[in-house]
TrEMBL record:
Residues 116-231, 236-319, 338-400, 407-449 form the Ig-like domain. It is a single-pass type I membrane protein. InterPro entries: CD80_C2-set, Ig-like_dom, Ig-like_dom_sf, Ig-like_fold, Ig_sub, Surface_Rcpt/Adhesion_Mol. Homodimer. Interacts (via extracellular domain) with CD6 (via extracellular domain). Homodimerization and interaction with CD6 involve the same region and cannot occur simultaneously. The affinity for CD6 is much higher than the affinity for self-association. Interacts (via glycosylated extracellular domain) with LGALS1 and LGALS3. Interaction with LGALS1 or LGALS3 inhibits interaction with CD6. It holds the Pfam family Ig_2. GO terms for biological process: adaptive immune response; cell adhesion. Transmembrane segments: none annotated. The keyword Transmembrane applies. It comes from Loxodonta africana. This is CD166 antigen. GO terms for cellular component: axon; dendrite; plasma membrane.
Length: 449
């Protein structure tokens, strides 16, 4: 009801239209058309808004005759209003407090027309972010995964959690989701926080977690997503394995052996118990244990286990390869021609070994055997043996055989076909090398030496 003083005070009832809604983004300019046809006998137009208790607050006035515009002294709208000739009201820098019911009023001498407009202001929230992230998740343990936070929203939005792109639903003791919203009294903008407690499994290894916030804007509902977060998943060791370095097929006496124990948990165990032949109680060590200068008596079963769960154990058999060679006789041996000389080359090894005989750098087809020594049997003999599967494992012993004997003389004569001369040849065999001289029988004179 509006009272106009002309010649007398007359009470008239306003006529107008139904409610109309204008949606605006936070910070934009709100534009509200009057939505009334301007009557020919218009005196002036006014805009007002209504307080929650229904009381009016006038904010703008425009005369139809003087064409001047007046803005009421309302602090929150100072320098923000603009009223056009067609009575469209614009409000710059939209705020949450602008969510009101505004009314356009066109006044004639005998009537008042009203058109209400409801203003809705929307503020897109910030991109959600996963914060307070757990350094790791542990299987079968309900742990705080993190908080999803999104700021400066109006109205407040709803937060959803995802695992590998699939929405997570609340499951007591497995997936616990809580939600909290707070409004800044100065800006009336909301900050939303959702906390996720999660019980991980090994299937969560390398799985991405994300969150989203669904909010309403001027054009309807929208959703914005966070960046992915991948968490380190801790899980207990389920199997223990043991490794031997160098490879156990090539270990020989004098080598160093490193036993390496591995657990398939995350993080892997840092310490183990190592069980060596003769040490059933176990030796506590890091995941590597080294034995130096091993001997053949180190051959046996080696094991390792978890410290706190000795039943989880792994074992391996290690053979320390060895090779012994004995040559009898060896060194330098002097024998007489015609003597017998038994020779033996005995090999003791962890595997079948090959044996090769050499004489004066020439390979023999068989082992030497001397039942009656000859001068040509003298020489340098070498017995060599090796394990082909084990690099560097070979042995050799040598025998230098010297064959001595009294000189043996053999003479031959050959007459020249002319009959004028004869050639006498003297063959002497012996060791050490004999001295040879010629004498003339009956005279004793030496003619050659």
């Amino acid at each position: 009801m509006f009272c106009i003083l002309v010649a007398k005070c007359v009470l008239v009832f306003s006529k107008g239209l139904g409610w109309y809604t204008v949606n605006s983004a936070y910070g934009d300019t709100i534009i509200m058309p009057c939505r009334l046809d301007v009557p020919q006998n218009l005196m002036f137009g006014k805009w007002k808004y209504e307080n929650p208790d229904g009381s009016p607050v006038f904010i703008a006035f425009r005369s139809s005759t003087k064409k001047n515009v007046q803005y009421d002294d309302v602090p929150e709208y100072k320098d923000r209003l603009s009223l056009s000739e067609n009575y469209t009201l614009s409000i710059t820098n939209a705020r949450i407090s602008d969510e009101k019911r505004f009314v356009c009023m066109l006044v004639t001498e005998d009537d008042v027309f009203e058109a209400p407009t409801v203003v809705k202001v929307f503020k897109q929230p910030s991109k959600p972010e996963i914060v307070s992230k757990a350094p790791f998740l542990e299987t079968e343990q309900l742990r705080q995964l993190g908080d999803c936070i999104s700021k400066d929203s109006y109205p407040y939005g709803n937060i959803t959690w995802y695992r590998n792109g699939r929405e997570l639903q609340h499951r007591e003791g497995v997936v616990n989701i809580s939600f909290n919203k707070q409004m800044d009294p100065a800006t009336q903008l909301y900050t939303m926080t959702s906390s996720l407690e999660y019980k991980a499994t090994k299937a969560d290894i390398q799985m991405p977690f994300t969150c989203s916030v669904a909010y309403y804007g001027p054009s309807g509902q929208n959703t914005v997503y966070s960046e992915q977060a991948v968490f380190d998943i801790y899980y207990p060791t389920e199997q223990v394995t043991i490794q031997v370095l160098p490879p156990k097929t090539a270990i020989k006496e004098g080598d160093n052996i490193t036993l390496k124990c591995l657990g398939n948990g995350n993080p892997p165990p840092a310490e183990f118990l190592f069980y060596l032949p003769g040490h059933p109680e176990g030796i506590r060590s890091s995941n590597a244990y080294t034995l130096t200068d091993v001997r053949r008596n180190a051959t046996g079963d080696y094991k390792c286990s978890l410290i706190d769960k000795r039943s989880m154990i792994a074992s391996t058999a290690i053979t320390v390869h060895y090779l012994d060679l004995s040559l009898n006789p060896s060194g330098e041996v002097t024998k007489q021609v015609g003597d017998a000389l038994p020779v033996s080359c005995t090999v003791s090894s962890s595997r079948n070994a090959s044996v090769v005989w050499m004489k004066d750098n020439t390979r023999l087809r068989s082992s030497p055997s001397f039942s009656s020594l000859r001068y040509q049997d003298a020489g340098n003999y070498v017995c060599e043996t090796a394990l082909q599967e084990v690099e560097g494992l070979k042995k050799r012993e040598s025998l230098t055989l010297v064959v001595e004997g009294k000189p043996q003389i053999k003479m031959t004569k050959k007459t020249d076909p002319s009959g004028l001369s004869k050639t006498i040849t003297c063959h002497v065999e012996g060791f050490p090398k004999p001295a040879i001289q010629w004498t003339i029988t009956g005279t004793g004179s030496v003619i050659n030496q």
